[in-house]
Amino acid sequence: MINLAIADDHKIFREGLKATLEDCADLNLVFEAANGIELVKQLAHKNPDVVLMDIKMPEMDGMQATAYIQENFGHVKVLALSMHNEDKYILDMMKAGASGYLLKNAEPQEIIDAVFTVYKKGFYFNEHLSVTLIKQLMGNSSQAKNKGETELNEREIEVLKLICQEKQNTEIADKLFLSVRTVEGYRTRLFEKTGCKNIVGLVIYAIKKGVIEV
After folding, report:
1. Is the pTM of this model over 0.70?
2. Residues 138-184: pLDDT tens digits?
3. Residues 87, 178: one domain?
4. Between 117 and which of 37, 107, 124, 201 could a Cys-Cys bridge form, CB atoms 3.0 to 4.6 Å apart?
5. Is 87 a member of any domain?
6. In the listed set 97, 129, 161, which residue is the last one of a domain according to the structure?
7. Domain stop point among 81, 106, 129
């Protein structure tokens, strides 16, 4: 069961979204909020796993709320759900810490799939969050080919590659003949060494450093 929260200042849209999600037995809507202030006030005691976040909201917008969640509730995944498809909005939300980006006219099944993917894998990519946008986020892609710049050792690079392939800890452990606890330790060191705060950041780092080809 995935605990879900919705933050959007348009009640009609929230109602429509709830109707879309209510038929999925594995999704549990724990609360909804009309702005970022309402959202952060409820986070501590209602503990959602994933937040569907609008960008343009009064009092505290989606970017500010996402940054707050990233700083104070790092286990909570943010899935941006907006009517804006401009690169700037997408990039700003990813910089703030969002784990994926969807347009509000997305098909209901895509929204459901994105929630499950973000919860299980830590990130969700689609055509709106393309490789081109990732490269723009990290700067000139021509600088991403020098693998010698990386500070990671060989085993850490192996783990990073498997993370980028959406492998979970148990799968990585089986592949590399390691214990799950050891893999968890490598994940922690990857976050510490790269300065990344979530899985999306690790994927972006891997692209920038040429660890993975795109």
Report:
1. yes
2. 554 444 444 445 578 999 999 999 998 888 899 999 999 999 999 99
3. no
4. 124
5. yes
6. 129
7. 129
Q: Is the same domain home to 34 and 112?
A: yes
User: Tens digit of pLDDT for each residue in 55-102?
Assistant: 999 999 999 999 999 999 988 999 999 888 787 888 888 889 899 999
H or E segment and range at residue 135: helix 131-138
Instruction: Give the span between the Cα atoms of 36 and 75, in whole angstroms.
Output: 18
Phi, psi of 149 (to 5 degrees): -75, -20
- pLDDT at site 148: 43
User: Does the residue 214 lie in any domain?
Assistant: no
HEC assignment per residue over the chain: CEEEEEECCCHHHHHHHHHHHCCCCCEEEEEEECCHHHHHHHHHHHCCCEEEECCCCCCCCHHHHHHHHHHHCCCCEEEEEECCCCHHHHHHHHHHCCCEEEECCCCHHHHHHHHHHHHHHCCECCCCCCHHHHHHHHCCHHHHHCHHHCCCCHHHHHHHHHHHCCCCHHHHHHHHCCCHHHHHHHHHHHHHHHCCCCHHHHHHHHHHCCCCCC
Both 20 and 124 in one domain: the answer is yes
Task: Look up the domain containing 116 and give its range.
Answer: 2-129
Crossing angle of helices 11-21 and 108-121, in 10° steps, is 80
